[in-house]
TrEMBL record:
GO terms for molecular function: DNA binding; sigma factor activity. Pfam families: Sigma70_r2, Sigma70_r4_2. The lineage of its organism: Bacteria, Pseudomonadati, Pseudomonadota, Alphaproteobacteria, Rhodobacterales. Residues 98-149 form the RNA polymerase sigma factor 70 region 4 type domain. It comes from Thalassovita autumnalis. This is RNA polymerase sigma factor CnrH. Belongs to the sigma-70 factor family. ECF subfamily. Gene3D superfamilies: 1.10.1740.10, Winged helix-like DNA-binding domain superfamily/Winged helix DNA-binding domain. The gene is cnrH. GO terms for biological process: DNA-templated transcription initiation. Residues 10-72 form the RNA polymerase sigma-70 region domain. It comes from the Bacteria.
Length: 167
């Protein structure tokens, strides 16, 4: 197993790489910490320093792109929600009630994935671990759940997205 000492030796390189791909040093530090945490929790990490180094760079890179994807999806989701509330002319309280009512109409599996990712802020990989499914499954489930929620809020037919989730 790769030891904490090996990770400590490579830490300056991990920080430099994270700073190079992140927009801020705080984000880079968080990214490195998340990557180290992930590495220490994984049983099948490389044991040789020369194999651990590129493996950890890959972990850092993947975590970074997961975060970028999550931010993009949240921006799109919030923009659509804002557009809906602007079009409907509803207040924030009325919009929140409308969204909560629509959320309650969703099937439990859709509510679960929305809760874990959008409400609780878990990363896709963390949600996948909680739900014991693959990362890609979380990504497709969250997409369908968001579309179904949006359809319910807009008052359009959400059945197609709900049906896809049951397959």
């Amino acid at each position: 197993m790769a030891s904490l000492t090996q990770i400590e030796v490579l830490l300056p390189e991990f920080r430099a790489y994270a700073i190079a791909i992140c927009s801020s040093s705080d984000d880079a530090e968080d990214l490195v910490q998340d990557a180290i945490e992930r590495a220490l929790r994984t049983d099948n990490r490389p044991t040789i320093l020369n194999e651990l180094r590129p493996w950890m760079f890959r972990v850092i890179r993947n975590l970074h792109y997961d975060e970028l994807r999550k931010r993009r999806v949240r921006r799109e989701y919030l923009a659509a929600e804002k557009r809906l509330s602007d079009e409907a002319g509803t207040s924030d309280v009325a919009r929140d009630i409308l969204i909560r009512m629509a959320f309650e109409k969703l099937p439990p599996d859709m509510r679960e994935v929305l809760c874990l990712v959008d409400i609780m802020g878990l990363k896709y990989a963390e949600a996948a671990n909680v739900m014991s499914v693959a990362n890609g499954t979380i990504m497709s489930r969250i997409s369908r759940a968001r579309k179904a929620l949006l359809a319910l809020v807009e008052g359009t037919d959400a059945r197609s997205e709900i049906e896809k989730s049951r397959r």
